[in-house]
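Need a sequence for this fold. Nothing fancy.
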């Protein structure tokens, strides 16, 4: 039988850099574990055919709801991006952001957020 229960805090290395780790791949969805270190990004982007749901486990950041608009997110927040919705996060805090994301349906395509100005 495949694993169906995951202990997030046992899966996160104590220290490290920004990364994305697949937790679970299924026929119709995938679950990923993200670490975003202070000052790093998941740049704003869209998925033309997939939903992307993020659960913020740790850390504080700025979640992009469009290429120019953002809202503060904190532990316990859930964000939902439907197909075509811009989403991304900047770690504006002093600790790592830990996110569990669920993407569905597969395969997931990624497009740049229209109008987003990438920092230099």
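Here you go.
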């Amino acid at each position: 039988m495949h694993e169906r229960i995951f202990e997030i805090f046992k899966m996160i290395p104590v220290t490290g850099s920004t990364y994305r780790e697949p937790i679970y791949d299924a026929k119709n969805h995938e679950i990923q574990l993200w670490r975003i270190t202070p000052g790093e990004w998941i740049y704003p982007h869209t998925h033309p055919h997939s939903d992307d749901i993020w659960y913020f486990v740790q850390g504080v950041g700025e979640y992009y709801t469009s290429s120019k608009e953002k809202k503060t997110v904190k532990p316990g927040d859930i964000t939902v991006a439907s197909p075509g919705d811009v989403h991304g996060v900047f770690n504006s805090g002093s600790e790592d952001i830990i996110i569990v994301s669920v993407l569905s349906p597969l395969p997931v395509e990624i497009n740049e957020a229209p109008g987003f100005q990438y920092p230099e």
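For context: The longest helix spans residues 8-11.
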